[in-house]
Amino acid sequence: MRILSITTSLSEDSTTLKLANKITAAATSAADDAGLSPETDHVNVRNLSSDLTDMALTGFCSENLEAAFAHVAESDVIVTVAPVYKVAPVGLHTLFWQLIDEKALANKPVLIGSTGGTPRHSMAGETVLRPMLSYLKGIVVPTTVFAATDDWGSVEGGRSLNARIAQASEELIGLAASLGGVAAAPHAGAEASSASTGEFGRPGARRNPSIDDEFNPEFITPFSQLLEG
Amino acid sequence: MELGIFTIGDVTTDPTNGTTVSENQRIKNTVEIAKKAEEVGLDVFATGQHHNPPFVAPANPPVLLSHIAAQTEKLHLSTATTLITTTDPVRIAEDYAYAQHLSDGRISLVMGRGNTGPVYPWFGKDIRSGIPLAVENYNLLYRLWREKNLDWEGKFRTPLNGFTVTPTPLDDVPPFVWHGSIRSPEIAEQAAYYGDGYFHNNIFWPMSHTARMVQLYRQRYEYYGHGAANQAIVGLGGQVFMRKNSQDAVNEFRPYFDNAPVYGHGPSLEDFSTQTPLTVGSPQQVIERTLSFRDWAGDYQRQLFLIDHAGLPQKTVLEQLDLLGEEVVPVLRKEFAKNRPADVPDAPTHESLVIRHREGRDPIPGGGPGSRAYADRQAKAAEQKDTQGADR
């Protein structure tokens, strides 16, 4: 099972990155327990900042950005973590989700994590990101993880943060397992792509059509059908 | 191989001195550019179609193309877009046939949908129906150019009863049609279905994507039995700016790039040059980059360059044409001809289309007997018959 973290870590050793690593580790161990052979990967949106603004201005998707979007499409579950600025996840982070293809998250369990200075920002993930990720057809788990300075600075805070992370990760992996079709073995890719051959929207086709499928002569709508309207 | 230029007719302020030419001047400049294209030995001049500022590309391109036809001898005159979605197919059929007569067959068309939402309602259309409009309207245009006393009924225009286009196309052979699209597989499929050409503007997209569209068109062209995949008729755009010394080209073009409509204030010139076919440098660099298109597009039939946009002064544009004509095009012609398989067709001309027509080799839309598409249809029909038999 491929676990991908999409994180906007603005400095090198940010608390956002720390939180993303903690969540990914918890999700990995939950997946291990469930016998799902987890593989993890990480995309830092910071490295795509100019690609994202370029695309917003010109509609032109750079190769790096396209690779990141493809990475999302290929993953089974998504962890997304960003710092909160003025009661919303930082704009760079939302821009990533605003520019990705519609339905990019179809059938994918998603876990939202955020960091902020004070607990007053704690609802940002819920109010801003959850509807956006739902719009992308992601299945966002009920528990979101918010970590404020307090959570890092005190023993109590640390404990309760870890508990929230464990809870959210179990929801994430439990959901992935119950959705079925999530590969337990490295052969997942081959299995998934053979399951999606044939026509789009066919029952059982788990994976979204990728750009390769879109230009595959076997998948396109024959012109006679277009002509019939 | 046809080599030429295409224009979108933008009226853009020159960022280096703040001057903006008048619409009148831009239109006259466009005519001068076309005439110069013939003078320096290019094959094609192509224009877009526009209904909104800051563009003065004609709302009805045959007006401009006929005017240029009257002042040139050999130059092929094409659209870079004919808006098949919002222009009445009956008017396209008539106006372009008329221009075809006036120009003795030097006219061809690139069909496009147009991506500016507000334009559609001005003509009673809806951008959400872009693809269905392109499909129905082109099908009507195709028939108008080939059938007399046509009875027709569709979704998007008033029905026709016993309609015959006047004038009918020259020598009963319609102008050659390319279908242009950046990323809609339906349009590559449409081009393949009819055995028409496929044109990619090749300006805003990474070449890896453009290659996929070209590949799809080629495969479907073969499926419909119009020829082998490598015989499909492919056209590409491209964007260049040249000076003898490549660093001079970069320095001179940078302010125009940085402030250009669409991509200005976005990616750097360097990034955009890496990721898209834009080439800013010496004529030799332009030659090498353009020849490399063949590596991913296969041997193709038409190459058009965008050279006159973003507020570049007319004098500079004419200098670009000199460089194209003197240094670039002769080499491209020679190099593109090298190792080109003998069975890959040249760009269609009126003369070649007349011969094809008289020999009864016109493409059959959807594929005639002998094509895989035809065999698939037969198999499907037989299957349906069997099922009906079993039901009884």
CATH homologous superfamily descriptor of chain B: Luciferase-like domain
Q: CATH class of the largest domain in chain A, please?
A: Alpha Beta
Mean pLDDT of chain B: 95
* CATH fold title of chain B: TIM Barrel
- What is the count of β-strands of chain A? 7
Which structural class do you get from the secondary structure elements of chain A?
A: alpha/beta
Tally the beta strands of chain B. Answer: 13
> What is the CATH-assigned architecture of the largest domain in chain A?
3-Layer(aba) Sandwich
Estimated structural class of chain B: alpha/beta
Q: CATH class of chain B, please?
A: Alpha Beta
Largest interface: A-B, 25 and 35 residues
GO molecular function (chain B): monooxygenase activity; oxidoreductase activity, acting on paired donors, with incorporation or reduction of molecular oxygen
Protein name (chain B): Luciferase-like monooxygenase, FMN-dependent, CE1758 family
Organism (chain B): Brevibacterium sandarakinum
Keywords (chain B): Monooxygenase, Oxidoreductase
Describe this structure in words.
The complex is a heterodimer of chains A (229) and B (392). With 229 residues, chain A is an alpha/beta fold. Chain A folds into 2 domains: 2-179, Rossmann fold (3-Layer(aba) Sandwich), CATH 3.40.50.360; 196-228, no CATH class. Chain A is 48% helix and 16% strand. Chain A has helices at residues 15-33, 49-58, 63-74, 91-99, 124-135, 149-153, 155-179, 188-195, 211-214, 223-228, and strands spanning 2-7, 39-44, 77-85, 88-89, 109-116, 139-140, 145-148. In chain A, strands 1, 2, 3, 4, 5, 6 and 7 form a 7-stranded mixed β-sheet that branches. In chain A, a hairpin with a 2-residue loop joins strand 3 and strand 4 (88-89). In chain A, helix 1 packs across helix 7 and helix 2 packs across helix 4. Chain A is globular. Chain A starts with a strand and ends with a helix. With 392 residues, chain B is of the alpha/beta class. Chain B has a single domain (2-361), classed as Luciferase-like domain (TIM Barrel), CATH 3.20.20. In chain B, 44% of the residues lie in helices and 13% in strands. Chain B has an 8-stranded parallel β-barrel, surrounded by 5 helices. In chain B, strands 6-7 form a two-stranded antiparallel sheet. In chain B, strands 11-12 form a two-stranded parallel sheet. In chain B, strand 6 and strand 7 form a beta hairpin. The model of chain B has no long low-confidence stretch (mean pLDDT 95). Chains A and B meet through helix 2, helix 9 and helix 10 of A and helix 5, helix 6, helix 7 and helix 9 of B.
